[in-house]
Design brief:
This protein has 74 residues and is mainly α. The radius of gyration is 18 Å and the shape is extended.
């Protein structure tokens, strides 16, 4: 199994920092190599911002608990 990471389609429209973080995560998945602290920090910061944007746009979406209860009680 090759661990070489090939070019990402549409790489020209992906910001360089996001491309680097994506490659680091893929390398971690393939090799088990740990992520450096800066990459981990950026990923957490970006994920938190995305979560905040979604809550601001759509509110809190409570679909998990009702779905589990429906499946459990069926």
């Amino acid at each position: 199994m090759s661990t070489e990471i090939v070019a990402i389609p549409f790489a020209a429209v992906i910001p360089p920092e996001l491309d680097a973080d994506t490659r680091a995560v893929l390398e971690k998945l393939v090799t088990g190599k740990p992520l450096d602290a800066a990459t981990t920090g950026r990923i957490h910061r970006d994920a938190d911002q995305i979560r905040k944007d979604l809550v601001r746009k759509y509110g809190v979406l409570d679909i998990g608990v009702p779905a589990v209860r429906e499946l459990r009680d069926a």
